[in-house]
């Protein structure tokens, strides 16, 4: 097993105790002689070194690679065809980031709606007073979530505590807890007319690439706040800039961009009513602990029979 | 009935239809000849005109005043002894502000904990990046709420959706929904050692006046974030300034001050890690509607038998 992400000493001890037959290598241990012994990659992410290594293993007829555990929830960057051809299983880190991302979503909304943006400016001027006409209550507002997976469900749970009405859009349209209604992705247009807030947390696929484009923003009539905590390429940034400029959107918050980092020349930097976070919404304190705990049940099962119990990625859906 | 707060035309029509025997006066209608006819004051607040009028009515042996409906939830400013001597009932606006105040509380917390303060500064510099070591997750944190009334309970409800542990301190120590534990106000000190976040939403009484003073802040060991959405005089502002300066508090947010507005000379304006909102946390869109709906069931009962069904203030507890 190759640990691309460092294991803590206690985690390494736990692996060695539970699975004495398992050899754990780090990137520094790799050589031409042990490369093909790797059966599991723990902590895979799309660094240059990671991409090179994975290509090399998938191209080698002697590679023993059977399972890749990514560090991210979204896995759009993987070479799915090659992985599938070689019958390599992929598991993602879905679920670990849900709490964090939901917290950022409400951080953005409350910053705008409770006029905290004004409060920050007023304090810097030692001015006691804000324009209360700009203060908005979240309760009784309509939240529309594109992608009711782990993260979307946690966003919905908090939204219900704030007494919001929650709508979702998914591929299947299947009902989920805390959503008042979920429609499938061919029937969401009627919901746009109700949306006060729109959140994207869909995986990036060919269908969701540039999903939020000019045609989408042109359908909006309610001046919602738009939040992207999914993937950057799902949003046409020029169209978003346009929608903020024309007022089709009241405000927006973006945590992801295409490409990242956001170019210094992007017009988004100058957009008023836009909050930018640098792909940090999913940041988790004690990530190492949470991540290892997603991996361990899978490893236990894998060592018994080569199968996995959770977070398995569908090689055709790519999420 | 005197309407110190304007009634909307539809509300006035509703009153005239339901209670044809009721005469509704506005402040402009008042004269020496009708002053003593006032039996109800709707929308009372501590303006100079309000205070003068109330004193005059309470001092007049011919006054018919029976009931004062305040515009605020906290009623610490009322002349309780005189009201009690004259057997005047008081109802407050408790409950109307709960959703709004809870939203501000989480707006403050998420602004600090999800490093949105850094994000705002970084955007102004067109800089993509923040110090992720400063990002904190709310889940699994301990929230300590002083005052588990309507507002405190709504704060607790949202905190549970964020997977926080919620403690409360009240006069009775009586259990409430969404609180993991509530202790009485003589036994809260053990909870201070666990507190990541402390919120004050207690009514202002002689017991809560300057409750959050230097002795209180000196007991803190966890560098919590402190939020005051209750009443300004419950906090010793000089002690709070000291606690922010020494780092006893990680950060703070204040919506209320003593006096208001906060003086331009206050050292609080220069405190880093302090958010100031100008008594706007309870701001409610469509307040007029919500307020009238708190009043109406009471008026209906009052017109029948002179009693009230909700939001009655205890003349000895003062809340």
TrEMBL record, chains A, B:
Domain of life of the native organism: Bacteria
Residue ranges annotated for the D-isomer specific 2-hydroxyacid dehydrogenase NAD-binding domain, each copy included: 108-281
Gene3D superfamilies, A to Z: NAD(P)-binding Rossmann-like Domain
One function term, GO molecular function aspect: NAD binding
Keywords of this entry: NAD, Oxidoreductase
One Pfam family of this chain: 2-Hacid_dh_C
Full protein name: D-3-phosphoglycerate dehydrogenase
């Amino acid at each position: 097993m190759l640990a691309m992400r460092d294991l803590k000493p206690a985690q390494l001890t736990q692996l060695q105790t539970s699975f004495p037959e398992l050899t754990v290598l780090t990137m520094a241990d790799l050589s031409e002689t042990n490369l093909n012994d790797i059966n599991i990659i723990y902590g895979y992410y799309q660094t240059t070194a990671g991409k090179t290594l994975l290509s090399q293993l998938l191209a080698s007829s002697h590679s023993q690679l059977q399972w890749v555990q990514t560090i991210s929830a979204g896995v759009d960057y993987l070479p799915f065809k090659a992985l599938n051809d070689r019958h390599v299983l992929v598991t993602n880190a879905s679920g670990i980031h849900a709490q964090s991302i939901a917290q950022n979503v409400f951080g953005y909304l409350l910053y705008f709606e409770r006029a905290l943006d004004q409060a920050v400016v007023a304090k810097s001027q030692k001015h006691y007073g804000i324009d209360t006409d700009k203060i908005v209550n979240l309760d009784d507002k309509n939240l529309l979530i594109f992608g009711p997976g782990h993260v979307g469900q946690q966003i919905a749970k908090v939204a219900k505590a704030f007494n919001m009405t929650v709508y979702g859009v998914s591929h299947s349209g299947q009902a989920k807890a805390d959503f008042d209604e979920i429609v499938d992705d061919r029937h969401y247009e009627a919901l746009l007319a109700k949306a006060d807030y729109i959140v994207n947390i869909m995986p990036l696929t060919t269908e969701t690439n540039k999903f939020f484009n000019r045609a989408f923003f042109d359908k909006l009539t309610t001046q919602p706040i738009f939040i992207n905590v999914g993937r950057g390429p799902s949003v046409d940034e020029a169209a978003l800039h346009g929608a903020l400029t024309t007022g089709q959107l009241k405000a927006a918050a973006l945590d992801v961009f295409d490409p990242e980092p956001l170019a210094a020349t992007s017009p988004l930097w100058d957009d008023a009513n836009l909050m930018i976070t640098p792909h940090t919404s999913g940041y988790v304190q004690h990530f190492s602990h949470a991540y290892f705990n997603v991996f361990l049940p899978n490893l236990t099962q894998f060592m018994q029979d080569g199968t996995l119990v959770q977070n398995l990625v569908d090689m055709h859906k790519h999420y």
